[in-house]
Amino acid sequence: xxxxxKTPGGLHTSTVSLxxxxxxxxxxxxxxxxxxxxxxxQIEGNxxxxxxxxxxxxxxxxxxxxxxxxxxxxxxxxxxxxxxxxVDLCQSMNxxxxxxxxxWPALMPKPGATELDPEMVKxxxxxxxxxxxxxxxxxxxLFHFCLPTYLSDAGGWRNAKxxxxxxxxxxxxxxxxxxxxxxFWLTLNEPLAYSYQGFIGxxxxxxxxxxxxGAFEAIRNLxxxxxxxxxxxxxxxxxxxxxxTVHWMPFVPRSSWNxxxxxxxxxxxxxxxxxxxxxxxxxNLQFVPPLTVDKRVRKLCGVIPGLRGSIDFxxxxxxxxxxxxxxxxxxxxxxxxxxxxxxxxxxxxxxEIYPDGLYKLLTHGLDPYRYDDxxxxxxxxxxxxxxxxxxxxxxxxGDWSLNDELRVNYLLAHLIAVHKAVKxxxxxxxxxxxxxxxxxxxxxxLRARFGLVRVAYPTLERTMRKSAKIFAEIxxxxxxxxxxxxxxxxx
Length: 491
Ligand code: FCB
Description:
By secondary structure, the chain is α/β, with parallel strands linked by helices. The protein has a single domain (25-481), classed as TIM Barrel (Alpha-Beta Barrel). It is built from 16 helices and 21 strands. It has helices spanning 40-43, 47-52, 56-60, 79-92, 104-107, 118-133, 149-152, 161-177, 191-200, 212-236, 259-282, 295-298, 355-365, 405-423, 466-477, 483-486; strands at 5-6, 12-13, 25-27, 33-37, 97-101, 137-143, 184-189, 241-248, 251-253, 284-285, 302-303, 313-318, 322-325, 337-338, 379-384, 389-390, 428-433, 448-449, 453-456, 461-464, 479-481. Strands 4-5-6-7-8-12-15-17 form an 8-stranded parallel β-barrel, surrounded by 6 helices. The chain has a 3-stranded mixed β-sheet with strand order 9-13-14, with helices on one face. Helix 9 packs antiparallel against helix 10 (212-236) and helix 14 (405-423) runs parallel beside helix 15. The protein is globular. The structure holds beta-D-fucopyranose. Beta-D-fucopyranose binds next to loops.
């Protein structure tokens, strides 16, 4: 690693160094997968879902004060009518992989269903078939944060009934689409981020605040849900590749000499990064002390049937690093708070840009989970990585946001980190950028834009940003060609 450089703004820019003089070509392995990641609620604008408010999220967005820019996902990118053009865009960007999620509430509008909604099946079948016909690999997520209201009203993932329904949903989906249309199965997206935001942070449904026990109950049920879905998929497709995505975040204490800040860093790293992964690896959910002082938490500990080793590849969502600090208050919170101190340059969401963290994760951080029971290194896929810029949802014409230098730099820095990790021996097999399009960014609403491709929401017009063009070039060459001189200003 090179020492951190200073940006004009005075913040450090995290860098990954390149060796040597003259043109540098950083080639990726031949079979490397290049793609984009999406999720249904954030892009679909599903009329049936919206009209009848059949999901927790579609209800949440219309409650007063839930979404920071007061937008909803009622229309979002209207992907349901634009998917063909959007797949064309992916093709024009030379991509070979697409990640999508299935709309559980729309596919299974009633509990206990014995078949999926035929209209929605038709839509996903057409989309997946189109991707396959054009030579794409597909990653399909079964649960990407959205529950049918008949489950969320009954307690969501805190209620074991949700596990049964998720198992049933998985079985119906696999019978319908696999193995012809799906290459990689992701049972759950970011279960820890989901539980945190829904039970502790309060900004996602069901809106719990500081409810650690609620979050831990949900985690236990999500683990069971994953284990059951994993078993169903393998029963129907013995050689399926199944995993879940993990949102991995390096944590650092605000002050390295303050033992309280260090404790918050340890607790956040332990729960956010390791609790889930270790539980899957061992098949046994165990919380660390002092959490187990609480009888309700102790009750959740123990072996979960079918969980041990239920992971065929590692699916990593990596965005940022977080500084944590202890807050003086009563009663004390051993997890502390996310500090507003930033050492590195930040995105407009305040997320530090820290590509070194991805390199370190791929080369060291994943060590406890790198090998399967037979000693084979698991394949690693970056299933999300990207950067937000803020532009009002009302903007339409003009060249606003198209020259997205910061996203370009972010993309390049992270690809250099991935390349370096591959060279160091990490078994990384693919990189999926979040996201293809600007989309509905949960509690941030439509203004937090993560797209390589800009969406002007009033007209739904799609326009490639500079980052999309550069990504297309990299993917086309399967290499970063002279990133220092061509486009990366920080190295
Ligand atoms: C991830 C989510 C994804 C998107 C990005 C920015 O945590 O999986 O849906 O919101 O963050």
